[in-house]
């Protein structure tokens, strides 16, 4: 797989936020220190850089596997053609030479073993083995799937997703960050047709309820006193 977009560099290491802030995420009107943002941007850059490097290594090895398979298929085809030619090997010496040649079954077995060895070699390398996006860079389509089962880090999209928050017209984007596979997972769902998004976490005791995260664009402040309120209250307007 060839990456066309230039990798955005961010080399300032920054400072890792405390675990409590990583668990709860940013709140409305939070003003995170620059060192925390530098840490997040640097980690994102280093992760993408590693994905590109490992993908390049996988491409090289995969090409070698394909070349080996193509070569063996050609040899097997040549042997099959030779076997079906009734005019060849009519002398005892020729029959002895032919008898010593490798059979199609044996050649195929060796080709299969070579392919298996190459795959094992690739899988043993410390490269990113889980897709975080489609091969073309778009989000992975998980339409009609249960969000409780989407626990691997990645970027997704879909409609009619089980255990999803209410979405206008059904479509949404899903961002997943896994602390560990199957445990401690953060999910964010962005409504495709509305300016709102939701968040929940998978913890030891199971999935939390979805919470809608509000931004400055959908909160209205007023010093008026609606019925039942007092001066100075903050009233939230839902869109």
Quick overview of this protein structure:
Residues 1-26 are annotated as: Disordered. The chain is α+β, with helices and mostly antiparallel strands.
What is the overall shape? Answer: elongated
Range of strand content: 15-25%
Please tell me the total number of domains: 2
Mean pLDDT: 81
> Helical amount among residues, as a percent range?
25-40%
Order of helices and strands: HHHHEEEEEEE
Number of strands: 7
**Can you summarize the main beta sheet?**
7 strands, mixed
Q: What distance lies between the first and last C-alpha atoms, to the nearest angstrom?
A: 42 Å
- Gyration radius (Cα, Å) is 29 Å
Main structural class: alpha+beta
Number of helices: 4
The stretches of 5 or more residues where confidence is low (pLDDT under 50) are: none
Classify the oligomer. Answer: single chain
Description of the structure:
With 239 residues, the protein is an alpha+beta fold. The chain folds into two domains: 19-124, no CATH class; 140-218, no CATH class. It is built from four helices and seven strands, in the order ααααβββββββ. The protein has helices at residues 19-24, 34-83, 92-99, 104-124, and strands at residues 140-141, 154-158, 172-180, 183-191, 197-203, 206-207, 211-213. Strands 1, 2, 3, 4, 5, 6 and 7 form a seven-stranded mixed sheet that branches. The longest helix has 50 residues, at 34-83. The two termini are 42 Å apart. Residues 1-26 are annotated as: Disordered.
């Amino acid at each position: 797989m060839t990456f066309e977009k230039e990798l955005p560099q961010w080399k300032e290491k920054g400072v890792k936020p405390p675990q409590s802030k990583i668990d709860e995420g940013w709140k409305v009107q939070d003003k995170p220190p620059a060192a925390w943002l530098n840490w997040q941007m640097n980690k994102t850059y280093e992760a993408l850089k590693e994905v590109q490097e490992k993908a390049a290594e996988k491409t090289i090895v995969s090409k070698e596997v394909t070349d080996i398979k193509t070569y063996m298929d050609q040899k097997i085809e040549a042997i099959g053609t030779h076997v079906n030619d009734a005019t060849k090997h009519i002398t005892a010496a020729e029959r002895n030479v032919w008898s010593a040649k490798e059979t199609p079954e044996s050649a195929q077995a060796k080709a299969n073993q070579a392919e298996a060895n190459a795959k094992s070699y690739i899988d043993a390398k410390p490269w990113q083995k889980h897709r975080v996006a489609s091969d073309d860079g778009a989000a992975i389509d998980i339409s009609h799937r249960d969000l409780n089962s989407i626990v691997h880090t990645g970027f997704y999209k879909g409609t009619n997703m089980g255990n999803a928050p209410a979405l206008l017209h059904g479509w949404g984007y899903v961002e997943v960050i896994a602390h560990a596979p199957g445990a401690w997972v953060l999910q964010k769902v962005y409504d495709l047709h509305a300016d709102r998004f939701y968040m929940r976490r998978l913890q030891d005791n199971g999935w939390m309820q979805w919470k809608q995260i509000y931004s400055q664009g959908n909160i209205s402040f007023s010093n008026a006193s609606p019925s039942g309120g007092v001066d100075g209250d903050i009233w939230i307007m839902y869109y």
